[in-house]
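It is worth pausing here to work through a concrete case rather than discussing structure prediction in the abstract. The textbook approach is simple: state the sequence, then state the predicted structure, then interpret. We follow exactly that order.
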Amino acid sequence: MKMERLYRPVASRLAALLVLSMVTMTCGLLEAQGEGRGPNGEDLRFINFTSIKIEAAGKGKNSYTIEIKAKANPLPLGTKVDFLLTCRSQTIKTFTEAVPGNKRIDADFVVKNVHPGPDKYMFRTVINLKKQTSAVRKEIEKNPKLFPPAGNPWTEFHFENQFKIGSPEEIAASVAEMRNWFISRYTELAKLDGKISAEVKGIEAGTSTEYLDSSGAFEEKKWRMWFDKKVVDRLIEFQAEIKKSFVDPKFTAHRLVLAHLSELTNSVAWRAIDKSADLYRSQKLKPVTTDVKPDKLEIQVRSSRRRVPRKSDLRRLLDKINSLLGIGGQEGS
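Step two, the predicted structure:
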């Protein structure tokens, strides 16, 4: 009973602290969205978009002009506002505008290498005290109700003003291009995985004669020529291509699909060297080092860290990729 009485106050205090922290976090998020900033506690945003228009920039393929019009009534004259163009929470480019005397921001932002797609873009606006002139900084610091110091840099997410880039025709063409790119690569991976299994089984059964000498014995040199050049080197090329694609603007909205494709490629790589090592063992040979601890080939797989990936693991990854690409009647996000 004594222990129970001692425990209750401690538990109560912990619960109270937890609730208080949750309320504080919630209030901070609400203030960041412009709620409660007004003189009487009403909603008040720093930036209110009145118009966002997208047009081809005429400076080459995948270049667009984003024409924005916005009201900035609560902000002091000369306040520097960062407009972060984002897609799927990733920052594409940042533009900076100063609030003019009429508190109306009218700007044209030119973006290059932005590929049309079904995903929506939006702006996140940020006011950073460090970037302001001394005069603007003084005006901001005089109004802690509007600019709570703990909120610096003051950020607003404009979910209600999301937009797409590109015409319907451009978006459809881009979607088809991306789907074909991913399909061609995972199809080649599937064929490669199947080819390795078939060759190993054929050697063990004595039917794959191209890797056997005249007496029917396994010829390691011939196997290494095929496996190292046609399998390992190709998988290394795949992995390098995927890494490069992660920083390609064309894949901005497809980085999650790339992550699954990378996982699929590494899974096929792990399965490949494991089958080659098993082949050596079946021939009473010691597996070569590169089949046990590969040098350039990556085999780290998050979904199967403790075991060699199975075909069912490959199918699950393939299902995730197809879902995100909208293949098979189910479009992901």
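Step three, interpretation. The chain has two domains: 35-161, 168-325. The two ends are 54 Å apart (CA to CA).
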